């Protein structure tokens, strides 16, 4: 699922971080969506710092939505208005085996 909106808050906390985004629904109402991600140590390893998302930032969020339909899900990627993509789970880079 993909939604576009404005960052309300980014909680860089343990054990899980949360991104809250204001999203306009079809009726024009602003709904707060919550997106769960890993804790700060995992986000740091992925290159995502505490100041990466600020209130007012325009973002597009790809997520795995909750099955019950509530406005929340697991953060897959966030694309900022400048094109920066934040991925809390970057693909593992294969490491070459040492030459014998």
Brief sketch in words of this structure:
The protein has one helix at residues 40-45; strands spanning 2-11, 17-24, 30-37, 58-65, 72-80, 85-86. It is mostly beta strands and 100 residues long.
Largest sheet: 5 strands, mixed, barrel
- Give the helix/strand class: mainly beta
Number of strands: 6
SSE topology string: EEEHEEE
Question: How many helices in DSSP terms?
Answer: 1
Mean pLDDT: 92
Provide the low-confidence segments as ranges. Answer: none
Share of helix, binned: under 10%
Strand-residue proportion = over 45%
Shape: globular
N- to C-terminal distance: 47 Å
Over the alpha carbons, how many angstroms does the gyration radius reach? 15 Å
For the largest sheet, list the strands in their spatial order: 1-2-3-5-4
Structural description of this entry:
The model has no long low-confidence stretch (mean pLDDT 92). 18% of the residues are buried. β5 (72-80) and β6 (85-86) form a beta hairpin. This protein has one helix at 40-45; strands spanning 2-11, 17-24, 30-37, 58-65, 72-80, 85-86. A 5-stranded mixed barrel has the order 1-2-3-5-4. The longest helix is centred in the middle third of the chain and has 6 residues, at 40-45. Helix content is 6%, strand content 45%. It is built from 1 helix and 6 strands. It has 100 residues and is mainly beta.
